[in-house]
Write a structure and sequence with these properties.
6-stranded parallel sheet; alpha/beta
């Protein structure tokens, strides 16, 4: 069949199957407008990013009968040198999904890349009776080529490094595809703003995977509203990240680009620079150009839901940071390292918030790299400590201590709990809700983690990165998207773009 005679799946359903489906399937353009997928139809998915996180999540997603992965994209063709939290986690997940205990036995490292993604998708669907008509998964180095060639994609899942999130999401929505993305929406304030504006103007459904359905944040809000800790003063949130290697300066050596990696595509919008393995795979998170640091990696999990539950509708208006310093030896003399390239080994960031619809002015203090708040007196007196990752809500009459994401909150002193437990029953802790976006996308609706809800947390977290880079307090005018007290810091609101990649 010539190209001019080819029809895609949507066209087929509207012609050859029209007679048999007329009574059960109403055209998407009638029911839900642009982007609508008939609930009786599978959501066709383009999968962008086949690294460790991408492949790990693919093993769970591929079994969902409402989804069919039809294309993958990654500038890396194939490698076994990925960085992960488990030596065999990716391999074992694929083995379980395929029912093949021998898959990947020839690999000596951690596999990934578009060849692995394509092979996994094709083998899985080949053995599935529900997809006996499956014609094969397409594969691309460049996601932009995927968009031009595969016209039958309903949505994309964005599993790229942070610096590509906005670029991929905006391009997808402009092509009429829904978008689910890993955190963050963007690692620059301007890019986050553009991404959210594009979601609003195109009407495409979106979801930020950091959203979860754990009820702890809602219970915290209930207790605050009930006056159990008095007036809110501070929110403390701490993580033991980073758990990836950190570097304090740009590598000086220039190793060759590995075979199968398109380095220019991996860089995307970031200006050209020599390849180095320290930039890629999981370690990209530590670089200002490519990642968002520990707060972007973990803070979205804890703060996105908390912002939604507490009704925080305005981002922080100021941020200041204290970070660890490092030194090195030069000619046997200890000298400090002026780190302008990467996030620190650990830091503390203090955000200030104006009054919100249901909250007074308050402060948010973020800690990472193992730094934690001091043990509150209410715990110290009982001989207890605080967890290595956690959250503490401080009012003028009491405190709430919870897990990192707000789970399992308790009042301090814990003796208070005895008097309120009968009035505030705990709900069972829910799961992360990673796949709630599927039904939303199929019905042309916004998911609970919609980009449209993520503006305040996105701008707050990226403001923290600006404070780290500026090395002093920054004051932020969100309405005009401007740093007001330090004009030179406005450069960090955006990035210099490589020609052809501008937003």
């Amino acid at each position: 069949m010539s190209d001019s005679k080819k029809i895609n799946r949507r066209e087929f359903l509207g012609s050859a199957a029209a007679a048999s489906l007329a009574m059960t399937i109403v055209p998407r353009q009638v029911l839900g407008g642009p982007g609508y997928v008939a609930p009786s139809d599978k959501l066709t998915l383009g999968y962008i990013g086949c690294g460790t996180q991408g492949m790990r999540e693919m093993t769970g997603l591929i079994a969902n009968p409402a989804v069919q992965i039809v294309s993958v994209a990654d500038p890396n063709k194939f490698t076994t040198d990925y960085v992960d939290w488990s030596a065999n986690g990716i391999r074992d997940g694929i083995r379980k999904a395929l029912g093949d205990s021998s898959w990947g036995e020839k690999f000596k490292g951690i596999p990934g890349g578009r060849d692995i993604g394509q092979e996994f998708v094709n083998r899985y669907y080949a053995k599935s009776k529900e997809t006996s008509n499956y014609k094969g998964c397409t594969s691309y180095a460049d996601f932009r080529e995927m968009f031009e060639q595969d016209k039958d994609i309903d949505a994309i899942k964005n599993m790229t490094p942070d610096h590509l999130h906005a670029t991929v999401a905006i391009a997808s929505m402009k092509k009429g595809m829904h978008v689910v993305t890993h955190k963050p929406i963007a690692n620059r304030i301007r890019e986050g703003r553009l991404t959210i504006e594009t979601a609003r103007s195109t009407g495409m459904s979106t979801h930020l995977l950091a959203w979860n359905n754990r009820p702890g944040s809602a219970l915290i809000k209930t207790w605050i509203n009930a006056g159990l800790i008095g007036t809110l003063k501070e929110i403390h949130n701490w993580s033991n990240r980073p758990v990836w290697p950190q570097w304090q300066s740009v590598p000086a050596d220039k190793p060759p680009v590995p075979k199968g990696l398109d380095w220019q595509l991996w860089l995307g919008p970031v200006p050209d620079r020599p390849y180095h393995p320290n930039f890629t795979h999981a370690v990209f998170r530590g670089w200002y150009d490519f990642g968002g640091g520990s707060i972007a990696d973990m803070g979205h999990y804890s703060l996105f839901n908390l912002f939604l539950a507490l009704g925080i509708e305005k981002p922080a208006y100021s941020a200041e940071a204290n970070a660890t310093t490092t030194c090195t030896l030069r000619d046997n003399v200890a000298v400090g390292v002026n780190n302008t390239a990467a996030f620190p080994l650990s830091c503390m960031i203090r955000f200030q918030f104006a009054e919100q619809p249901d909250l007074p002015p308050f402060e948010l203090l973020w800690y990472d790299g193992g730094i934690r708040p001091f043990i509150p007196d209410e715990l110290r007196s009982t001989g207890k400590s605080i967890p290595r990752e956690g959250m503490m809500i401080v009012g003028d009459k009491g405190k709430i201590l919870a897990g990192f994401r707000g789970e399992e909150p308790v009042l301090l002193p814990e003796s208070k709990m005895e008097h309120i437990v009968k009035n505030y029953n705990r709900e069972d802790e829910g799961g992360a809700g990673d796949n709630v976006w599927i039904e939303a996308f199929r019905n042309g609706k916004q998911a609970p983690g919609s980009f449209l809800l993520a503006g305040p947390v996105t701008e707050t977290i990226n403001l923290g990165a600006i404070a780290l880079r500026a090395k002093q307090r920054v004051e932020y005018d969100s309405a005009n998207m401007k740093i007001t007290n330090l004009p030179e810091a406005n450069q960090y609101l955006t990035r210099e773009y490589r020609p052809g990649w501008e937003l």
